[in-house]
């Protein structure tokens, strides 16, 4: 079922978008792909809501880090996630400097459609057994 946020005139040729150009229909299409939905679940469930590719790679062992980056790029292209990174002088050696978070538009869309409930995915994420390296990354500051 398509969300009801039509932009346009007569109803024909309308597309779903907000004033900022967030296309809800495309966002839902891309977010509900099985592999991207798994990644989004981990983004939502992450204790700081800003996992790195290394953390996502750990929680999605069937995907390579390149595949995760491609899926994140697809999600960013439709406005579901955004990349946050430390400035060059603020980066820590041997630690990630790029992190991914859900956009406000995506959180609102998912809440309206009962997708990716934060409390449930945070519980699920906490239940995952993590290595010392992943726990250390999890605790590091975020931009």
Which features does this protein show?
about 140 residues, mainly alpha, two-stranded antiparallel sheet, 7 helices, about 45% helix, globular, disordered N terminus
Commentary on this structure:
A hairpin with a 7-residue loop joins strand 1 and strand 2 (15-16). This protein is mainly α. 47% of the residues lie in helices and 10% in strands. 25% of the residues are buried. It contains 7 helices and 4 strands; from the N terminus they run E-E-H-H-H-H-E-E-H-H-H. The strands form 2 sheets. The chain has a two-stranded antiparallel ribbon. Strands 3-4 form a two-stranded antiparallel sheet.
Give the structure's gist in a few sentences.
With 143 residues, the protein is mainly alpha-helical. Helices cover 47% and strands 10% of the residues.
Layout of strands and helices, then pairs:
Layout: E1 6-7, E2 15-16, H1 24-31, H2 34-45, H3 53-59, H4 65-77, E3 81-85, E4 98-102, H5 104-112, H6 118-127, H7 132-139
Antiparallel strand pairs: 1-2, 3-4
Helix pairs in contact: 2-6
Low-confidence stretches: 1-19
Structural class: mainly alpha
Q: What does the radius of gyration come to?
A: 16 Å
What's the order of the H and E elements? Answer: EEHHHHEEHHH
Shape: globular
- Overall pLDDT level: 88
Q: Beta fraction of the residues?
A: 5-15%
Widest beta sheet: strand line-up: 1-2
Record field, number of beta strands: 4
User: Helix fraction?
Assistant: 40-55%
Reported for the largest beta sheet, the result is: 2 strands, antiparallel
Total of helices: 7
Distance between the termini: 37 Å
